[in-house]
């Protein structure tokens, strides 16, 4: 078993990962298993380094003096001096030619040194630009960190302006003695090897999610089947899971007129998206450093949609047509999402490497088709993923709920909708309006920054959200559930608690990501990381690691309670939501551990509970 060379508290020189530069560090720990030293830089950054990347200060200085004394020019001149006493005449005869050769060699060495210095400064500038193009981020990982390095910290960049100035001062291009230049730089070959290592970016996704190729292949069929099964169950008098519904004829599942209405709805929302209203903001930096621009007008699109629905109702258009043909609409949306996914995958094959999603570039057709091969597919300035994320499905969810409310009134001959239906519609309307009002916050989510746009998001946005999230309203049409006012008040309070946790936690996170130096956030404490970003340890993010997920689950429960306890079907959404968030939480934990390393371990020690305080 190798012995430990450096002790805790010892001040040594540590090589900054990905560079050839050494900085003064303090040894703070040692891992007997991995044989990595934990070191701390003067700016507070902690990294794990191999023993070969650490040198003692005395040895470092000694090697510098050694390299200067044994430089090529000194060795050649010392050899010439040692020969001159024994052969004075010959030395005099060759003195002029030797002097010319020595000057030529010196001139050549200076030129080569200046070239190497220019390359080194270019490397430093490259690192600096890369660092400026990252954002401060808490909770969810960025879309770019998926590397295989020998270090625990995955983002390897040089330090900011102060270190840049030191490098420029240390390696200025003013003429110096050859010994000094040899002391300060590495060989040209070493520098080019560093550049090559920095520019090399992993191009393939190595860690496959959702069960890999087999799992994603099964999900392509399982997700639509689940949606159709749930809708068929809701139409039964006894919607218990043991009472399997009869399968309808395939030809009865398709209606061309319904598909036309769905296309009209989709392109109407696209038209609203293209209207020149609302502000234009920049998203987070992409892996190539670019920032895409997004028009924030989702709330305006919702208002225009509400006005259009109001006009239809004024002219006595029967909106409950949605209820009568609900399965047809679901099939039409599923067919459209499949066609859209095929288009997205075909166009991604011609996309440049830098535009591909870090999680959907495995090289396996089925896996990349499901997760999304291209990160931000656009037609001109029209961002397909961003548009589908909020517009057709989310606004469509509210329209479907309204149609269910009107259908309940017509089928049961009611002058007013039931209290249960009012609660479901109100709670979910609040959720949608909140998402559209805070539309800019979605630009920092993993759906936008990390996940590609493929079948998973296309089907989720266009089918799963509007047709599964409206399950409670669809259930109440055929299974009325009366509730008392005190019960309604208790459910309302529960929903308000969940919404408050959800909104305040997301606001803290998004504001901190956008501008950590905001004076309004001075009360928040965070753990600095080697990536230059911080992990919040106060506020909601110091309570549990994913407080927004906690608020989501509480609201999902409040949406299901108005349906009573006769059947478990209305609570499918709660069960699904818990499973989804636990999966997302596990994925976030894995990515954050890779990205933040020791800082994430410190954060987990500080905040031990993941979603449910004192439970999980």
UniProtKB/TrEMBL annotation:
- For bias kind Basic and acidic residues, which ranges apply? 98-108
Stretches of Basic residues bias are at 76-97
- Give residue ranges for domain Tudor: 4-62
The family database entries (Pfam families) matched by this protein are listed as:
ERG4_ERG24, LBR_tudor
Q: Which GO terms describe its molecular function?
A: Delta14-sterol reductase activity; DNA binding
Q: How does it sit in the membrane?
A: Multi-pass membrane protein
Region (Disordered) residue ranges read 58-108
Task: Report the catalytic activity.
Answer: 4,4-dimethyl-8,14-cholestadien-3beta-ol + NADPH + H(+) = 4,4-dimethyl-5alpha-cholest-8-en-3beta-ol + NADP(+); 5alpha-cholest-8,14-dien-3beta-ol + NADPH + H(+) = 5alpha-cholest-8-en-3beta-ol + NADP(+); 4,4-dimethyl-5alpha-cholesta-8,24-dien-3beta-ol + NADP(+) = 4,4-dimethyl-5alpha-cholesta-8,14,24-trien-3beta-ol + NADPH + H(+)
Q: Which GO terms describe its cellular component?
A: endoplasmic reticulum membrane; nuclear inner membrane
Keyword list (alphabetical) reads: Cholesterol biosynthesis, Cholesterol metabolism, Cytoplasm, DNA-binding, Endoplasmic reticulum, Lipid biosynthesis, Lipid metabolism, Membrane, Nucleus, Oxidoreductase, Phosphoprotein, Receptor, Steroid biosynthesis, Steroid metabolism, Sterol biosynthesis, Sterol metabolism, Transmembrane, Transmembrane helix
The record, for Gene3D superfamilies, names: 1.20.120.1630, 2.30.30.140
Its localization reads: Cytoplasm; Endoplasmic reticulum membrane; Nucleus inner membrane
Q: Where are the transmembrane segments?
A: 210-232, 252-275, 296-315, 327-346, 457-477, 483-502, 523-544, 564-583
InterPro entries from the entry? Answer: ERG24_DHCR-like (IPR001171), Lamin-B_rcpt_of_tudor (IPR019023), Sterol_reductase_CS (IPR018083), Tudor (IPR002999)
Q: What Enzyme Commission number(s) apply to this enzyme? A: 1.3.1.70
Q: Where is the composition biased (Low complexity)?
A: 58-75
Q: Which GO terms describe its biological process?
A: cholesterol biosynthetic process
Which family does the record assign?
Belongs to the ERG4/ERG24 family.
Give the protein's recorded name. Answer: Delta(14)-sterol reductase LBR
Q: Which organism is it from?
A: Rhynochetos jubatus
